[in-house]
Amino acid sequence: MDMPTTSLSMEQQFKLQVLREQVKSLSQDQAQEYLLEVMRQNMVKENLLKHWMKNM
């Protein structure tokens, strides 16, 4: 199985730049909450991928 590349596509780079601009205006509390939510969503995604791979 081919491993995905670790570089970002141009679309992903653009989305990251837009996000970078958006988070500049967040307070520290908002930024911490945002980070925790992103981490939670990443963990859910990881669990879904593990479940999917196990059931292949």
Automatic annotation (TrEMBL):
<dbReference type="InterPro" id="IPR007574">
    <property type="entry name" value="NblA"/>
</dbReference>
<protein>
    <submittedName>
        <fullName>Phycobilisome degradation protein NblA</fullName>
    </submittedName>
</protein>
<dbReference type="InterPro" id="IPR036904">
    <property type="entry name" value="NblA_sf"/>
</dbReference>
<dbReference type="Pfam" id="PF04485">
    <property type="entry name" value="NblA"/>
</dbReference>
